[in-house]
Structure formats: structure tokens, C-alpha cells
Amino acid sequence: MGYPTIVFMDGSGAVIEKFVGFRDAKEFASILEKLSGVKPVDKKRIAELAARAKADETDVEATFELAKLYTQIGELYDAVDMLDLAESHGEDTIRSQTAAVYTEIGDRLVAREKYAKAKSFYRKALKRAEADEDKCGAGIGLASVYIGLKRFGYARDQLREVLDSASLPESLKTRAESLYATVAQRK
Fold this sequence. Notes:
By secondary structure, this protein is mainly α. The protein has a domain at 5-36. It is 70% helix and 6% strand. It has a two-stranded antiparallel sheet. Helix 3 (60-73) packs parallel to helix 5 and helix 8 runs antiparallel to helix 9. It starts with a strand and ends with a helix.
């Protein structure tokens, strides 16, 4: 018998963490938290924000923060409801802030292979995004939908558009180039 081995890799397949041997749930959760950079969700905070949003649905700060937390824990339909409320009562500035959350929802749906739903959220993100980083993140997400649907020509076009962006952050550039290399030879 061998020891259990866990290997974590980034999107390009490079090993970012590896450990050998059993880890209990608490230790494993700590490792995942460290790797993801995401802290566990404070359920009291969710309850507090939900109460604020219920008491005053025009409380844009509460509804937007709640949308982000719901997205983080995978409650995507609740997240979308809160985003809709935030946008309906917020100023134009909130629309651009929702782009990153819509992209995160799309990412989670792609992970579940719900490509058609993910596509609609990436398109929402693209419509709302003002910052190049948000546009590129949503564009890469949309390309991943096309890859999942085996629409490689569309994926190449979308990635080419992302790669042509004037101020593409290095992390997104690496991800886009990796995906582009994956689909470059596909029909």
C-alpha cells in the first residue's frame, strides 16, 4: 500500500502544492484556504446582510456584499437575485462592480459543465465590465464555455480578442495563452 498523495496544479498544469500522507478535514480545509486565498464564509455575516437586505432592499451595499458571499459558497441563484436588486437600486458604479461577480458565477457554472447558463453570465459580465481586467476575465470565461461546447473556432476568436487587449494583466495573459494553445489546432 502507498501513501495518499494530493497534488494541486494551476490552469497550465504546473504543480503549485503537493503533500503526501493523510490530512484530517480541518488540516485539509486549512490547506485549501491557503491555496485559494479565500477565507471561510462567516455565516453570521450572511445572516446579518440578509436581514439588512430584507429590511431594506434598496441597501445596495448589503445586497451586493451578500451576492459576493452567496457566490463564494455556491448559492448562485441567491447571488443572482441579490445582484439584480443591487443593480436595480444602485447607481451606474455598481454595474461595473457586478462584472467580476458575474464572471465568478460563470466560472462556477463551467466547473459544473453548465455551459449555456455560464455563457449568459459571462455576457452579462462583458456588458457591465469597464476595467480591462474584468473584460478579459469574462472573455476568457466565455472562451472556456466555447471549449466545453467544442466550438473551437469561437473559442479562438474570443481568446484572440482577449490577447489583443492593450492592458492585459500578466496572470490573465498566461491563462489566455494556455487556452489558446489548447484550441489552436482544433477544428
